[in-house]
Give the backbone structure.
Amino acid sequence: MSVKALKRLIHDFIIAESKVSASAEYMKKEAVRQDIQDLIVKKVKSGELSDQASLDMWFAAADMSLKALKMVPIEAYQTGPRKGKSR
């Protein structure tokens, strides 16, 4: 095998690996999007979201909630909510 052919083989391997990696990352993002879409469909079917205005308000609330949840450390999710505490 020539040096040129070997370089091409290595290049193709690196490109293939990056595509697999990108695909895995894309699939993770797509799964999150699908979970959110499923939740929205459920709320539309239940009547909780019945028009564009209610959907827009839901998205605004979801955006705000996600920003707040980003500040919660992983340990809080691992231990779960404290029992006996009311909101």
About this structure: The mean pLDDT is 86.
